[in-house]
Amino acid sequence: MARIELNNIEKFFGSVQVLKNVSLTIEDGEFVVMLGQSGCGKTTMLRAIAGLETVSSGTITIDGREVQDLKAADRDIAFVFQSFSLYPHMTVEENIAFPLRAVRSSKADRVAEVKEVAKFLGIERLLPRRPSALSGGDMQRVAIGRALVRRPQALLMDEPIGALDAKLREQMRAEIKRLHIARNSTSVYVTHDQVEAMSLADRIVVMHDGVLQQVGAPNEVYLHPANLFVAQFVGSPVMNIADVAVEGSGTDALLRVGRSEGFRVPTATVSHLNGSPAKLGIRPEAVLLSREPGEGFETETTNVEPLGSHDIVDVRVGDETLRARCDSGFARGDGEKVWVTLDPARAHFFDAQTGQSLRRTA
Amino acid sequence: MADVMTRLEPDTRAVARGLSDMTIRNLFIIPTIAFLIIFNVFPLLYSLWQSFTDFRASTTAPANWIGLANYRDLLGDEFIWRNFTITAKYVLISVSGQVVVGFGLAMLLNRAIPMKGLITTLLLLPMMLSMAVVGLFWKLLYDPSFGIINYFLGLGKFEWLADPQVALFAVAIVDIWMWSPFVMLLSLAGLSAVPKHLYEAAEIDRASSLYTFFRITLPLVAPILMIAIIFRTMEAFKTFDHAYILSSQPTTELIAIRLYKMAFLEWQTGMSSAFAYIVLIMVVAITNIYVKYLNRAKAR
Questions:
Q1: Percent of chain A's residues with pLDDT above 90
Q2: Hey, what domains does chain A have and what are their CATH numbers?
Q3: For a tag site, which of A160, A205, A303, A342 has the least CB within 10 Å?
Q4: How many domains does chain B fold into?
Q5: Predicted ipTM?
């Protein structure tokens, strides 16, 4: 297993720069998920690590060895493609054995290795079949088997379960996690699905426009987003973002969102803003609704999304709409009177110009 | 359908369709069928009948039914068997040459190169020429005293077409030159249909380029290559024009040439009909073997 280091990676396609000065260290045995929208450069970065794409500048090292000029075959990494990329004219057994045959390992070794991997993935009964006779999930199991059979230094996965249906995705996600724990292989995983990223990763790398936005454990990325992009990309439903003005001094300050009456919060929670223009970010679970008069002010619901375990309720706050996470059945429809307040401890503030998080330095 | 026709007013039919079904039948279908019967079905059956007679088209003597005598004589004639052997050798050399050259060219063209369209078109030119013309100018190229081939290869006055050992190869080379582009065209279609990600997967799997070629590229292109081979084998079997023009050696007497001589120089019409039927049956049999293999390759 191996430690992968990326130093100042830049990549141009023609005049378009898709990777901008990317530096990242992936520790031995770590599961890193690269998360971002389509076209953010995450797949290009993965392919650059694999050697399927050259980099314009910068170095890539695997276990201290510089590999950016080596061919993919010489980097000793395995790659799982979104399209599975199984060899259609070979059986499952031949597919899994292919990396071993390609380097001419002995037949006895080959049979034993293929058998072990097939058993590990629970695909022994599929060995004599051809890929065209497999379901999507089984195809991906075979593709993972082919990647694992040669015990690579690192396992790279490019949206490996993106082509599967929702239920199967959930199941495969659990299998990939189990596999990582069992094998403890250094893994780099690319996805645009933040749920996948949260559930699998030791560390999440959020990318946007070829730039690393934030690198951190799932909880850290979720609880302390570094900027507006990360705040809005990670989490479902999406974090509420609204223009905010901070007024007043003394022990209580007034957070005026969207020209509403404003929320009264302890001054300590907003003192670091210094009155500069800012945006408020608040997750739906930190928007608190109540049917009884209490803190905050009265407003009405504008939309209810029942999701079974909980409901997402939209409420009007001045000329903004905030989404709140409530117990299921809290509101029955639009236009119901509710009291709204915010949990100031879970409020995020971002610089209105740069989008960077304004965190308390205390 | 007839009662639909009678229920519709004649003018509405004409307005609605321009041409009625009847008119279309009369205009297109009937001439086509008549043409097929006159030029294909009738000669096929007539020559089958002739193959059982001693008919000679050069005399007015009536044809006598002689049963299977023509077939017996032909299959027992060692000279005819020599023609078959020569043809088999010719087909083997010519088709395998075309596959190697054509597939090789396709491999070279199946990548991003400048002026790919122009190069492809130029490579296809031999295929578009008349066979007789090709035969005539290759005869000049092969000429022992002023031919450019001997000049470039420095072979002095080497007799390409008169040397009994070499003449068949010389004829096959012309066929290879002319028809490799055809194999190239089909192979190119097959090669570009192999998904790029399979090559990436093979690269990740540490397969050498040779291993990738034999284990990925070739098996995936095999079905379409097979179609090219079927076409070329059938055509090579009936090679006549350029072979006849290039060489009159007994070692280059392909079955089509023998057949031509038998039918139109020796006027053994009945016998040559029987000969033609034997060739037909052989070609159908060989093609069937290929088609079976093709279906097996496609099933994968």
A1: 58
A2: 4-233 (3.40.50.300), 240-351 (2.40.50.140)
A3: A303
A4: 1
A5: 0.83
